[in-house]
Amino acid sequence: MAGETISLPPMTLRVMLADDHALVRGGLRALLEAEPDIEVVGEADTAAGAVEMAGETQPDLVVLDVNLPDGSGVEACRQIRDKWDNIQVVMLTAFADEQAFVDAVAAGALGFVLKRTKASDLLSAVRKAAAGETLLDSELKDQIFSRAHAGRDSDPLLAELSPQERKILSRIADGKTNREIAAEMYLAQKTVKNYVSNLLRKLQMNNRAEAAAYAARLEALRESDE
User: Fold this and answer.
1) C-alpha to C-alpha distance for 195 and 188, rounded to whole angstroms
2) What pLDDT, in 10s, does the model give residues 30-77?
C-alpha cells in the first residue's frame, strides 16, 4: 500500500567462539544468546578448528582465545584475517599481556576482551568489534609499552603527523569510528577517511588497531612522566 512503512527485522550479529574450555564457551554462549540481536553460529576448541569453523560459518565476529592446545590463537587470527577480511576478530585472554596485545593487533585483531570483564562490558565490546571499532581494554591500555622509557623524547614517526592527524590518532585510540570522529571534529567522513589513510601511511602501519596501540604507548609514556 502506498505510503505504508515497512518495518524490517533488526540485523542479527553472528558470533563464533573459540576456546579450549567448554565451560568458558558455554558461559559465553549463554551470555551472548540471551541478547535478541546476537546468534552464536559455531564453536571450536583448537586453533585449526577455529580457522576451519570461521570458513564454514562466515561469522561477523570471532571471539578467539589467545592460548589454544594446538597452537597460538594469534596465528589463527592472522590466518582468519588473511583469508576472510570481512570477519572481525577479538582475542579472549585471562591476563592483560602487553606482548600478546601487540602481536594480536599486528595479526589483524581489533583488541582484547579479558575473561574477567563484566558481562555488560563484554557485550559492548562484542558489538563494537563487530562494527569494526578498535578495542583497548583500560587495563591493557595502561600497560602497553609502559616500560619503554628509553628514547621517549624522540619519536620520529609522531613528528611526521600534522596537528589534525594527531587529534584523529588520539580519537582512534579511544575506539571512535570515522563517523564519530567526523561529528566530533566537524569534518566530512570522507575527509576523516583521508586523514586516517595518511596517518597510517606516515606511521608505517597497516590498520587502525596498530595505530591505536601506538597511541596508547604514547599516552602511557606521557602519564608516567606526570
Assistant:
1) 11
2) 999 999 989 999 999 999 999 999 999 999 999 999 889 888 898 999
Place of cell 567526523: 182
Cell of 132: 569494526
Contact between 81 and 99 under an 8 Å Cβ cutoff? The reply is no
Whether the CB-CB separation of 74 and 103 falls below 8 Å is answered with yes
Phi (first) and psi of residue 146, to 5 degrees: -65, -20
- 153 exposed, middle or buried (CB, 10 Å; 0-12, 13-18, 19+)? exposed
CA distance 187 to 86: 27
Phi then psi dihedrals of residue 19, to 5 deg: -155, 145
CA-angle at 210, arms to 204 and 216, nearest 5°: 115
In our burial notation (b when 16+ CB lie closer than 10 A, e otherwise), range 102-131 reads bbbbbbbbbbbbbbebeeeebbebbbbbbe
* pTM beyond 0.85, yes or no: no
61-65, strands of its sheet edge to edge: 38-44, 13-18, 61-65, 88-93, 112-114
Q: Could you read off the pLDDT of 121-142 as tens digits, one per residue?
A: 888 888 888 887 777 655 555 4
3-state secondary structure of 79: helix
Q: b/e for 49-62, b at 16 or more Cβ within 10 A?
A: bbbebbeebebbbb
